[in-house]
Amino acid sequence: MGVQAARVVFPAADRAEIAEAVSEILRSGMLTLGPYTRQFEAAFAAAHSAGWPAGEPPHGIATASGTSALEIALRGVGVTGRDVIVPANTFYATAAAVLGAGGKPVFADIDAATFALSPDTLLAALTPDTAAVVLVHIGGLITPLADELTMACEERGITLVEDAAHAHGSTYDGRFAGSFSAAAAFSFYPTKVVTCGEGGMILTGSAPLADEARIYRDQGKGSFGANHHVRHGYAWRLSEQNAVTGFVHLRRLAHFIERRREVAARYDEALARLDGLVPLPEPSSCRSNFYKYVAVLPPGADRARFKQELADRHDVRLSGEVYDLPLHHQPALTEFAGPALPVAEDMCARHICLPVHSDMHDDEIDQVITAVGAVYGALAGV
Questions:
Q1: Whole-angstrom distance, CA of residue 318 vs CA of residue 306
Q2: Containing H/E element for 250?
Q3: Which domains does the chain have, with CATH numbers?
Q4: Which DSSP helix (H) or strand (E) runs through 185?
Q5: Does the predicted model carry a pTM greater than 0.90?
Q6: Which residues contact 289 (CB under 8 A, 6 or more apart)?
Q7: CA-based diameter of the chain, in Å?
Q8: Which positions ≥6 away from 76 have C-beta within 8 Å?
Q9: Hey, how many other C-beta atoms are within 10 angstroms of the C-beta on 200?
Q10: What span, in angstroms and rounded, lies between the C-alpha atoms of 228 and 195?
Q11: What is the pLDDT of residues 26-58, one digit of tens each?
């Protein structure tokens, strides 16, 4: 039996509850910005409330996608015509959100131990016109340097924004993703730990920024029912059907993370026996949701062959990298390429992501471990 790269998990009881709610939504005719959107916003904010400076749950603003959530956040903090620092190893959407908000992406190198910005790589990328920095929590890991990055930005009057698309429920030192910046953007794409098919969420401790975000997501209207547009917004609303799906799925977050962490612990134990295949370490104060389990192959390893052998010989398919082509090498972003970024380039070329499902079975974990050991041993000649 094969192990797929990812699996969407909706237990039967959840499917039934969602189906009943969707029927109710269709009967009511309230298909967008209705009660389920408000419930989902409140529940997601409450689930990430620990560690916010005000000691209260943040404001949650549901959007049509994680990309739109990030663009709205950047519009809200004001980056038009200015530079925004983005790590080179993130998804294209991070840079696209900067461009959509009117900013110019400036790509920065990363720390190999965390796959995230460090204070040094941030400072190396600073320009005289830097307006904001996007801290990306790759694979669900919040860098232990998050507070130092926050301080570096505050000292220079630069706004920090989090791309927390991977980081539902992840913490550092007891503080949830989203609590380190002016605003954070989450994604509910189907592969995410919590999903509603398509959708996103902004979390912010700022009531004025939350108000701005609600205006931007609804065509820039000053109020829902009025033909009165005060911002250059867009159709970034979340449907009620998506909202109730996310609202129900969110209840599983703690259980999903617990299982994913159990899978990761088994992988850690197995990889410790393989010389040269090194997992991305989880620092002691961090608690990742293990949206991705990242490991780094030794220099010179043939990643494509490694993945093909796993699939062909053992029916194990690895999930997509995070990410294989750095942003400054993306054809659509060549005009912003800038200098070489050696650490990001190296890590993008050498890492793999082992399958982690929120309901992964023990026999699937065993199959992955056996397959990785056999293929890696053969390729490494051990």
A1: 10
A2: helix 240-250
A3: 12-250 (3.40.640.10), 253-380 (3.90.1150.10)
A4: strand 183-187
A5: yes
A6: 140, 166, 167, 168, 169, 170, 193, 256, 257, 260, 261
A7: 69
A8: 183, 204, 209, 212, 213, 216
A9: 29
A10: 33
A11: 999 999 999 999 999 999 999 999 888 777 789
